[in-house]
Amino acid sequence: MSILNTSEMEISVFYLVGIPGMEHANIWISLPIYLMYTVAILGNCTILFFTKTEPSLHEPMYYFLSMLALSDLGLSLSSLPTMLRIFLFNAPGISPDACIAQQFLIHRFSPMESSILLIMSFDHFIAICNPLRYPSILTSARVIQIGLAFSLKNVLLILPFPFTLKRLKYCKKNLLSQSYCLHQDVMKLVCSDNKVNIIYGLFVALTGIMYLTFIFMSYMLILKAVLSIASQKERLKVLNTCVSHICAVLIFYEPIISLAVIYRFAKHCFPITRVLIVDVFLLVPPLMNPIVNCVKSQQIRNLVLEKLCQKQS
User: Fold this and answer.
1) 3-class DSSP assignment, residue 94
2) Per-residue pLDDT tens for 188-213?
């Protein structure tokens, strides 16, 4: 494969990469990736199916879980095509328009996931700290309104990216460093003035940090309320209701924080490290969230087991 490296010719195709140094094993790497995507899609579709069809799950908590499942499906389906093309068919090329569209989808669903995690932290805060007013505060209509408002906000937040990236010139090189298109990765290939993109990209990143700060504050208030409970058994029971959400927060934010630390303090680390962390960012949350939620939610777990038993009989 010849990679262009000129300052006079515009790029007509970008090249994505698999795992550096493991190109000979692409077909074998594709098998666990395909399995992870399959489990993620089936798991999140299962949550959406039961939330829609089971009246017992028509509660705010399960509506938020279904929003999280939709976000995870969006992340999976937006990155799945290019990853399978690279590892299964050794076809890393992608047009600039398709690349910009993919990074828009990824960056649209990623903030949506962090927004839902923030909403869920407030949901736990209200349920634990003000349980008597919980039904009146979080009605079904209000939950839908909150979900639509955050969804619209995230679309408007990311909407400038495709237009600003489209007007830039990509004429230095055309080799990206990941298996799919990310805004910060595409920006490295720009040879025209991109100060607006850099500033706006920083603003978008700061909103993610703000979400994480609010989640942390919510749990500080929850912990304060839990410590005021006299019975240790009741404390553990209340904290147990937050376990699945805490796992979802850690699963989502840990790769982001790790990647930020690597880019800031370990710029000369092996490229394979950055690639694996970025792949984990899109592969693991959609895979693990439905598994954790099904394990921790007794209602969903019982419904899944009931359906499986009916099929076997």
Assistant:
1) strand
2) 788 777 787 778 888 888 888 888 89
